[in-house]
Amino acid sequence: MAASKPKWVTIKTTLPERPLPLNSSRSPVTTDRLLIRALVAEDAPSLHILRTQPEVMANNPQGRPDKDLEETQRKLSPFLPPNDEKTYNCAICLKETGELIGIGGCHQPASLFGWPAIGYMIRKEFWGQGVATEFVKAWLDMWCKLPRAEAEIEIDRRTLLPDEGEESSPELVTSFTLVDNLASQRVLEKAGFERFLAWEDADLRNPDLQVTLIGYRYVSGRRLRN
Ligand SMILES: CC(C)(COP(=O)(O)OP(=O)(O)OC[C@H]1O[C@@H](n2cnc3c(N)ncnc32)[C@H](O)[C@@H]1OP(=O)(O)O)[C@@H](O)C(=O)NCCC(=O)NCCS
C-alpha cells in the first residue's frame, strides 16, 4: 500500500458517550489470567518498573526509559482524575497476585487517524505468553459495551472501509506500529484488527529519521477476521 497524504473527511458514526465512565465507577474485568482495572496514583512505582525496561520503551515514541519516578507520574496523570473522562487506559494485572505487569487501552480519544486509538505495553518477563492478546480482546469487549452516542468527527479517509461512502462509517478503533514491531502486529491481528495502510513518517523518537508505520483498524462490535 503506497504512502500518501491523508485527506480528512467529516463523517457520521458512533463513539462511546462522553464523559467516559470515571475511574471510580469502572468495574474491574477478569480474564483467564488477568485482572484489568482502572489506574490509580499508587500504580506509579509498578508503572515505573515497566517504563524503565529499555526493551519495552524501545518502540515508544519517547524512545528511552523514564528518567525517574516523577517522569512516570507525569505519564500516568492523563489517565487519572480529572482526565479519566477523556481516556480509557487500564492497569493490566496478574489475576492471581494483583501485580501490575502492563498498561493498555485508549490513551487518545482521537488518534492521528481521528478515531480512538489503542496502545499497550507489557513487562518483558511476560512476553510471548499471549498476555497482550488476552488483554486486547478483553479491552475491546469492555470498549464495545460502553454506552454509545451519535458523533460527527473528522477522520483520515484512508481508514474508511471499502464499499462505505464518505458520509458515515461503522465505528472504528485504530492502532499503528513500527514496521519491525512484528509482535505488536501479531497481537492486533489475533485480536481481530485489519491492517489497512503502510506509510512513511518522521520517527517520533528522532524526527530527523523516517520510519515505515503500519496502520490497523477494528470495527467495534464486529470482527473483520478471526
Ligand atoms: C508488543 C507486546 C505488547 C506483545 O506482548 P505479548 O504479551 O508478548 O504478546 P502475545 O504473546 O499476546 O502475542 C505476541 C505474538 O507475536 C509473535 N511474535 C513475537 N515476536 C515476534 C517476532 N519477532 N516476529 C514474529 N512474530 C513475533 C508471538 O509469537 C505471538 O504470536 P503467536 O501467538 O501467533 O505465536 C510486547 O512485546 C511489548 O510490550 N512490547 C513493547 C511495547 C510495544 O511495542 N507496544 C506496542 C506498541 S504499537
UniProtKB/TrEMBL annotation:
Pfam families in alphabetical order: Acetyltransf_3
SUPFAM superfamilies found in the cross-reference section: Acyl-CoA N-acyltransferases (Nat)
UniProt GO molecular function: acyltransferase activity, transferring groups other than amino-acyl groups
Residue span of region Disordered: 52-72
All copies of domain N-acetyltransferase, residue ranges: 33-194
Name this protein carries in UniProt: N-acetyltransferase domain-containing protein
Organism: Trichoderma asperellum (strain ATCC 204424 / CBS 433.97 / NBRC 101777)
